[in-house]
Write a structure and sequence with these properties.
240 residues; alpha/beta; Rossmann fold; Arc Repressor Mutant, subunit A; 5-stranded parallel sheet; 4-stranded antiparallel sheet; 8 helices; elongated
Length: 240
């Protein structure tokens, strides 16, 4: 695996929670991460991970999908009930359905094995950087009867809470933070995932937008919030 310098993104050491049962991978990645100045806590089973998660304070979670006593998907769901901590799936499960599920239930990135260390570290950095920027943002977004409480990760439409997947939530925040600005599909994908993986393409984005519209639009068939700008992309149309 390639080597790469990984810079800390803040004064306090970032603490990474790594859930993986492959000892050779654990040894290689933990050495590389520690070498760059990060702290790392390792769990090898789902039960061990749940206990360590409850007792720790982490800046990033790296999850394998297949664990000896359970699924990384289930662990992701449990973490998402209480936290918006960035989550990366690092797994050999490379089917499109696996990737979509991982992103839909709350994963922020999905890396399949085998992988290059330089790419992995770059994506870890990107998530930590985006998390830092997110924590420094305004605590609330308001537009068109929609309210996003950033610190809680909650979304309300006309006072009623609506449930969004992690991908839908990030997409909504991106649009509301850029009102009346036309965003191309490439710009949106770059902002959301910071990578150019083939499985994250315009077709995937179309699915995310369609799902989001069904939850936030009064008439999803005639959207007024997220409007399509032909041959250019999409924009958040403010009506306040």
């Amino acid at each position: 695996m390639d080597d790469m310098t990984l810079k800390d993104t803040g004064k306090r050491k970032k603490h990474i929670f790594f859930v993986e049962d492959d000892r050779s991978l654990i040894n290689g990645l933990s050495f590389a991460i520690k070498k760059q100045g990060f702290e790392i806590t390792i769990a090898r089973t789902s039960a061990e991970a749940e206990k360590m998660w409850a007792n720790g304070n982490y800046d990033l979670v790296i999850l394998d999908v297949s664990l000896p006593d359970g699924s990384g998907y289930d662990l992701c769901r449990k973490i998402r009930r209480a936290s918006k901590v960035p989550i990366i799936f690092l797994t050999a499960a490379d089917e499109e359905t696996d990737i979509i599920m991982g992103l839909d239930i709350g994963g922020d990135d999905y890396i399949t094995k085998p992988f290059k260390l330089a790419v992995f570290l770059s994506r870890v950095n990107a998530l930590l950087r985006r998390s830092d920027n997110f924590s420094q943002a305004d605590v609330e977004l308001n537009s068109n009867g929609l309210k996003v409480q950033l610190l809680k990760g909650e979304v309300y439409k006309n006072g009623t809470r609506i449930d969004l997947t992690a991908g839908e939530y990030k997409l909504l925040c991106l649009f509301m933070e850029n009102p009346n600005v036309v965003l191309s599909p490439e710009q949106i994908l770059g902002k959301l995932w910071d990578c150019d993986e083939k499985y994250i393409d315009s077709n995937t984005l179309t699915v995310y937008i369609r799902r989001l519209r069904t939850k936030i639009e009064d008439d999803p068939g005639n959207p007024q919030n997220i409007v399509t700008v032909r041959r250019m992309g999409y924009k958040w149309n403010t009506m306040d």
